[in-house]
Amino acid sequence: MEPDALAALRGLLGEARVLTEPADLAHYGRDWTRQVAPAPSAVALPESAGEVQAIVRWAIAHRVALVPSGGRTGLSGGAVAAAGEVVVALDRMNRVLDFDPIDRSLTVQAGIATEAVHNAAAERGLFYPVDFASKGSSQIGGNVSTNAGGIKVLRYGMTRDRVTGLKVVTGTGEVLDLNRGLVKNATGYDLRHLFIGAEGTLGIVVEATLALAEPPADPKVMLLALPDAAAIMRVFDAFRSAVALTAFEFFTDRALAHVLARGAQRALDTDAPFYVVCEFDAVGEAEARALAAFERCAGDGLLLDGVIGQSGAQNAELWALREGISESLAPHLPYKNDVSVRVSAMPAFMAEAQALIAREYPDFEVVWFGHIGDGNLHINILKPQALAHPDFVRECGRVTALLGEVIARHGGSVSAEHGVGLLKKPYLGHTRSAAEVELMRGIRRVFDPHGILNPGKLFD
Amino acid sequence: MEPDALAALRGLLGEARVLTEPADLAHYGRDWTRQVAPAPSAVALPESAGEVQAIVRWAIAHRVALVPSGGRTGLSGGAVAAAGEVVVALDRMNRVLDFDPIDRSLTVQAGIATEAVHNAAAERGLFYPVDFASKGSSQIGGNVSTNAGGIKVLRYGMTRDRVTGLKVVTGTGEVLDLNRGLVKNATGYDLRHLFIGAEGTLGIVVEATLALAEPPADPKVMLLALPDAAAIMRVFDAFRSAVALTAFEFFTDRALAHVLARGAQRALDTDAPFYVVCEFDAVGEAEARALAAFERCAGDGLLLDGVIGQSGAQNAELWALREGISESLAPHLPYKNDVSVRVSAMPAFMAEAQALIAREYPDFEVVWFGHIGDGNLHINILKPQALAHPDFVRECGRVTALLGEVIARHGGSVSAEHGVGLLKKPYLGHTRSAAEVELMRGIRRVFDPHGILNPGKLFD
């Protein structure tokens, strides 16, 4: 970046909010992926929508690329700045701006952490249901930009289903105030939904209005042990028919071993190849119906064992077996596949994917878990100690391309909830047609004609 | 249209499926609005997505504009063909293509009637919840293209919340197969949501995959009589806190008078200025809680009277008082305003709108009703016998512009669920900013570079 450009940026934000120290560049230049080395030229810390607008106009004038940056917990490299970009970190825009008890809506700045939104909702007697392991660090702007899902999609939907208003700054520096919390608004294209999942390529999200829900009545959590993969979807169907499920999450014995090795409490004595954590509210006869479903499944040989949480603390312990998986794998530098198919396609897809992976990764440890009630599997390949990281990534990329063909055959997605970013770009064509990508390219030119917003991400 | 163009179209579809008789042109050229005279040059009746694609390619080659056409129950002129266009009527594409019991999804062609979808879902033990008075004629393609809402949005959401897959033909003749029923798919811009509510200006919807719901358990319907406008939102809040409402619909004494004059059964002896029909499922203690809410509201002077349906037949009679309004007004050629604000803004907005309308329409009969639980009001102005229709429309347009300013001040929408079409175009700027409209224009050029899809609708 030219020195006069940097000076102009400092003129906009002040010295203290434009970082250029190597440690800051390294910190703000990457997300939870570790495949691409960070190399931004500066980090800008705006404190208002107006300052974000000023940064965009500055970027246009000086032809500098921007990388919008939230909690940087992303797993596809969407927030990585590896090519001299300026990182626009929303950290200082983390306030609750408004709450309305009639609309049951919370308006927040984009840099607020997901967990802070949970807390803000709870303090007001309500509930923000988008929930996942990185909630302490991830920010709402990032949630919006990847349409974050998580563990309660089954009942409450994705981030998309919660956003009733969105304020964004486009690539031309326009501030758009989209939908403003309306339930019904049939006045042309819903641009709000275009920004949700756009990974910061169409604009920078600066505020969001979120629809809150009633708090869960009396959540019950069960851990189930299953004899084989074929049982998973049959148990899902039995429980879904019995109760209104909030979550239905599965993981393998290998995933459990990693979580237990990190100190989690064993909850069942029975060893099984597959486990499920499910949750539902104990309204009316729900608990009795769930237990009856359990007995029926056990009688049919679909369940080996199970336990139901008897307290909030025990529920938390059961959830920890599922929620702790990602963290327990982190030291092994896992290569992550985050794929989905229609729920009905899951048994056939899973059998084919398992066979492919067993064949192609004979020597790698593979850990399966995920939101199987949404048709979403996380397949984590662990790096063998002896293998160099670049070789490991190259080998995983080769198999991901093969997996992409299986996904395409089953009509699925190469990224269910992690986005495309840098890492999944080579596989986008397995899920989106060439015509779709060309239309996306056209839309991007409309919103970012100068090509300054997260260039190189999503597609070229 | 040039004779060789017409001959080429007949070559594609055969003589019988290209209509040019004056009666057919008049029938297919208009929707439920009566303000613009229909004048299409032909009507095409495709039977497959491939034929729709062929029609689009033909239109590009011969520079002919197309008007996609469903049940033509629209109230904003979005399906009117008044300028020599070719109407593409989806009537013959009305089949159920697929049902999956695990995904609980129904894939249908775009020309299927809304009510036929209700029936197809019920035959499979499930429920399609998008429900409104014109369901017998309206088609799914039109529902998608206006993001249809209706009476059960409070619990089940809009059409947007039900569409998990969409097949469309764009203005360049590309067939897009969007999202294919996936719950989670984070692979770039969700083009599906762009087509929902686009009023046929970006592409022609040819198929939709719809998420079905569990059928309602045991629906209870109440009719409530309220003493004043201020009570409406307070009663809403009391009932919403007591039970999970499926619907909360309001109408005035004038609306009731029209429905009763058309033969509906009176259900309450008490005369009141405002009425509400609400619905909830009688699960657990819901009925007792609703009755307690009723008693509390009556004690606070917010309710004058009420009745709860004791049978399916009585529920239907109560609903008929609300559902019959539009039809009862039709002979009076009403000018329709379909506006929304945030639910919290409703009391202040309604007071201001009522004052404006009383002042500006001293001699016109005005009938208010709507989905007030969604912040959505239908304000119908009835034409006095003595006034010529063009004069009436001009006068209503003048007041609509004033109402638009009130709506803008309250952050609302000039079209909550009817779309923009031709009739609401002059008021679009009260809800969408100039920057938003310019972006919409850019998107339209990407999807329809030849300007053949419903030109002149939504915006110029």
Characterise the protein shown here.
2 copies of one chain form a homodimer. Chain A is α+β, with helices and mostly antiparallel strands and 460 residues long. The first copy, chain A, folds into 4 domains: 3-89, 2-Layer Sandwich (Uridine Diphospho-n-acetylenolpyruvylglucosamine Reductase, domain 2); 96-211, Uridine Diphospho-n-acetylenolpyruvylglucosamine Reductase, domain 3, CATH 3.30.465; 219-326, Alpha-Beta Plaits (2-Layer Sandwich); 333-420 and 428-435, Alpha-Beta Plaits, CATH 3.30.70.2740. Helices cover 35% and strands 20% of the residues of chain A. The first copy, chain A, has 15 helices and 16 strands. Chain A has helices at 3-13, 22-28, 49-62, 114-123, 140-146, 153-156, 191-195, 229-242, 253-261, 286-299, 312-323, 325-329, 346-360, 389-409, 434-447; strands spanning 18-19, 42-44, 66-69, 86-89, 96-100, 105-109, 163-170, 175-178, 203-211, 219-226, 245-252, 274-281, 305-308, 335-340, 365-370, 376-382. In chain A, strands 13-10-12-11-15-16-14 form a 7-stranded antiparallel sheet, with helices on both faces. A 5-stranded antiparallel sheet of chain A has the order 5-6-9-7-8, with helices on both faces. The first copy, chain A, has a 4-stranded mixed sheet with strand order 1-2-4-3, with helices on both faces. In chain A, strand 5 (96-100) and strand 6 (105-109) form a beta hairpin. The radius of gyration of chain A is 23 Å and the shape is globular. The mean pLDDT of chain A is 96. The interface between A and B is large, with 76 and 77 residues. Chains A, B: Keywords: FAD, Flavoprotein, Oxidoreductase. Chains A, B: Belongs to the FAD-binding oxidoreductase/transferase type 4 family. Chains A, B: Pfam families: FAD-oxidase_C, FAD_binding_4. Chains A, B: This is FAD-binding oxidoreductase. Chains A, B: Residues 36-215 form the FAD-binding PCMH-type domain.
